[in-house]
Amino acid sequence: MRKNQIQFILNNHSAEFNPIQSIVFSMTTIFTEVFPINLSALPTLYTYKLITGNKDISTIGGKLSYRLKVEFGGHWIWSEKRIVGDQLISDHKITKIVENLWQEQADVFRNLQGIKQELNFEITPQVQADFVASGLFRDIDREIKLMLADKAHHISKVKIERTYGVKAWVINEKPSISISVQSDLIYKQDFKTYVSQVSDPEELVGLMVADKASTLKGEILEITGRLSDHRSRLLSLTKKTDSKALIENAPDDELVVSVGKAQYHYLASALNIVLRLADCQRFGVDAQKALSILQIPPRQRSGIISEISKIAKEHGFLDSAYSSSKNPELFLNAQSLNFSSNLCFGNSRIGKHEEMLSSLKLYGVYKKANKFSENQSIRIGIIKGANTESLERFYPALQEELKKLKFNSEYIGLKNIQEDSRAKIEEAINLLMQKEKQPDIILAFFNDNSEEEGSAYDKFKSITIGRGIPSQYIEKSTTTNTFALGNIALGILGKTGNTPFSLAEPLPYADLVIGLDVARQKKKNLAGSVNATAIARIYFSNGDLLRYRIHDAPLEGETIPENVLQSLFPISEFQGKRVVIHRDGLFRGSEKQVLKSWAKQIGAEFYLVEVIKDAVPRIYSFSNGQVERPAKGDVFKLSDTHAFLVSSLPPFKNSTPQPLQIRTESPFTIEQAVHSVLSLTLLHYGSLRGTRSPVSIHFSDKIGYLALKGIKPKDLEGTIPYWL
Predict the structure, then answer these.
(1) The three-state (H, E, C) secondary structure of 590-601, written as one string
(2) pLDDT tens readout for residues 661-705
(3) Among candidates 676, 683, 697, 664, which has minimal Cα distance to 515?
(4) E-assigned strands of 144-263?
């Protein structure tokens, strides 16, 4: 890296220290893509309170902010349940705006009774951060996009675009902004052209699309209809000249679709198709080649963000990014957290997670299931679909791998089936289970690698999980993959009731750790209604699984009811215990209050930890003149109860890890919360690598997805991790 490149990164993105010294500077500096706001650059802000009978006012607030910007100019945003702007508007003008909205969009604004300026509201750091993210950044959006346009890549049928996003944060009571960079895989044929080639418009539902004229991106939720039935309504909704012209000039038969959670309605000609890797095969795109370009190495990613931040700094509203050299009190690492990657194996022998396989081969598993305690072989049944790879090499290789882990195994039956219908799969399972020696686990080999509804995987898992039969579905590509063989063997041990390893050092602040998740799915044809199933996984403080518990009855709404939460935390197991609760995502509604109340009633201590996986700013390392990815365990503290954690490193060295966002509450410290999450990333029995999420909530989305489809054990409480 040249001297001027180093200076550019440090001055615009990272710490403010002498760049020439840094070339030989051996100590690692950690920095983020989060920047403090220069408060002196902010205008005077005014807040307006909505008077409405509708409890959910966020949709009204967002749309109203946009309308005020169109009418009065300046910057208008929705923050802290208020309209915030840099313009002072008279009551008369506000009243007229409201009256117009009643006429134009009665379905949206019918509950809006008025808008009133708040004279005594104190502008908070969150409002200031939101104002910069959603307001001031719009002024430089075009300049940033022009810079990013030069960084696009073209391969075959797709263009890979670099896009950016900004998000508001409060760091130690200071308003701040994160700048992130993403890669979008844009199909070169636009959405309208693709629509003309599809026989059934319903095939379009689920596609990811992007507005050609804005940053909006989302899935197509439904086909709204043809423009002839919606033209006048769409014209009344939009205030943009270009959008009006598009709607006015489009033919009557052009398709209108509903996009994203807010269900915005778009003309097909206004959209581009955004491919996800799972879509590549459908569109004839080489997924591996696309992936190699989608991944942005740390140095390149950091450099792009530096260029974006430089533009913002030239406009005066951002300072240099947070870094461990400038803000050492905000950064932690594995050592300062007292985090250890040591695991406990057979005969209480200790080995490092990084040497897990060799430790298992040397010491054996931490705890064998009772039926294997006398060296009984693991009995394996096989179902093999038509046209699958030969398993002649796989059979002995798997047995040898299990033998290295100190387990004998025997194949007790092979069932070849010519079609992957549910009837044939179930018939094969029945024949295997009727043998005098029933298999301890059934392995299935099919050409179909899909896990979608109706796939071979879906049918196989529905039958085996529903009947409590340990099973493993093995994809074609893994039968000849040496690395995958170790994962398969490890998964077999876990699914047959063995505990391969535990934490060498139990969590000192907890007796139990529980992972809590709610799987949600909208009911068909019932707007706003939700089916949900609650899942809890309970672990001892050393990470050994105590049991899982599933609340089978569907739940309505977004919050777990009080009686359900209490049933997931029975007195018999939780009374008097110190319990760390990992919530996959945010606690909803009154869940926190209910849990605290229940803990008090049963004499327990519940420590509540939210683990948020999406849209978390990245962390970087700067060492020996190079921007590199950070280390596992690096932490950026936003406050005493809030942090970003690098919980794992991706297998590809040219990619930048995505941290987790961790939130907790006093008296549980953020250091303890982060330590609990980091420790439980070591305990996945289905992979030789650590996981990004703690094992308490790892696979929550998959478990929930299966449960909502009715694929769950007949015994809703159990001790075998069937989800591995």
Answers:
(1) CHHHHHHHHHHH
(2) 999 999 999 999 999 999 999 999 988 788 999 999 998 878 877
(3) 697
(4) 153-155, 158-171, 174-187, 208-211, 217-226, 255-259
